[in-house]
Amino acid sequence: MPPALKALLAQLAGVAVAFALARAGVVSGLWPLVAVQAAAACISAALLRSARWWLPIHLAFLPAVVGAQRSAIDPRWFLGAFVTLALVYWSSFRSQVPLYLSNRHAVRAVSALLPAQPARLLDIGAGTGSLLRPLARSRPDCRFTGIEIAPAPWLAGRLLALGVPNLSFLRGDFFAHDWADFDLVYAFLSPVPMDKVWHKARREMRPDSLLVSNSFALPGCAPDEVVELDDRRRTRLYIYRIRSQRAPETAK
Ligand SMILES: C[S@@+](CC[C@H](N)C(=O)[O-])C[C@H]1O[C@@H](n2cnc3c(N)ncnc32)[C@H](O)[C@@H]1O
Question: Which domain range does residue 23 map to?
Answer without folding.
Answer: 3-72
